[in-house]
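haha ok so turns out i had the wrong file open the whole time. this is the CORRECT one, sorry everyone. sequence first:
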Amino acid sequence: MADSIPQHRWAVLRAARLIPVLRYQDAETALYAAQVALRAGCRGIELTWTIPGVLDVLRSLRAQAERAGQTDVLIGVGTVLDAGQARSALEAGADFLVAPGVVPALVELAGAAGALSMLGAFTPTEIIAAKAAGADVVKIFPADTGGPGHLAAVKAVFPDTSFCPTGGVTRDNMAAYFRAGADIVGMGSNLFDKARLAARDTEALVAALRATLQDAGAA
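then structure:
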């Protein structure tokens, strides 16, 4: 992370502590969930490539954040599987890219655009491959397969690597992941109460997410 722009973006994400990973089957729900995250004070938001029209969602969210004066919010695209998706996400203004596995092309493209790269890994061999590809952050996925104990074990072997466990992270167990060595955590399906989300109970959703961010130690 020699470039000052990725360094700054990593500082923002690291201070945020928690990244909402938004994966929904329709763009309207994804945008609504992202708006809730903005209101709650999230400074980093991941929109997965699997959202229909994800790049339009990204552009809409960016415009809303700028209108609200939240110019320091980082919006990334996750579940990026190849160079074509990476290019499209970066052209739409993604601040960071996330892959579920090791996608070396993503790192090169993100770096050229001043964006952060996060590659997925689980085993030591995969972590070595992600580091060799130049990933800024290694996403431990699926985190709940090994839990905090697995993260602690790999952190002991790779103490200088920045880790973001994702998959099965909850408000109740995220403290254990931080103790195990996580720099940040990604929280997806456990982020929002599903009934409240379906009812569009904005105030309750914002309050709950703010409490989760406080528990995470978000700056």
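DSSP finds ten helices and eight strands in the chain.
again sry for the mixup
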